[in-house]
Amino acid sequence: MIHHIAIGTESLDRMAEFYQKIPGCEEKVEKYEEKSGTLRSVWFRFGSTILMLESGPKQATKALVFLLAKENASLWREFFIKIPKEQTTEFSIYFSDPDGNRLGCSAYPNAWKDLINEELNQ
C-alpha cells in the first residue's frame, strides 16, 4: 500500500489548481512554513493515497497513473475534453501536468473506450 507520493514544483499554485480538478480528488490541505508563513506544500487525497505537491525543484517520476473505473468514468471524460492527450493505448490515456510531469489514467484490465463511451479528441 502506498502512503503518499511527493512531486516537487516551482509553480505550487498552478500545479495545485490543476491537480484539484483531477477526478477522485477528495481533499486539499495546505501546509505553511512555521516561521515565514509561506506556502510550502499542498496535499491532496485520492482514496487512501496522498499526493503531496512540494515547493522546490522538479524531480518527476516516470508516470503517475490514476484509476479509471466505471463509477468515475463520466468525470474523467469531462476532464479529458478540456486537456490535451499525449498518448493513448488500449487501456490508458496519458497527459501532462503544468510542469510537464507525465500522468495517466488506466482502466486496466478494461479498455478505456469501454468506460468512456465517446471518442476523445487526440
TrEMBL record:
InterPro entries: Glyas_Bleomycin-R_OHBP_Dase (IPR029068)
Name of the protein described by the UniProt record: VOC family protein
Organism: Leptospira ryugenii
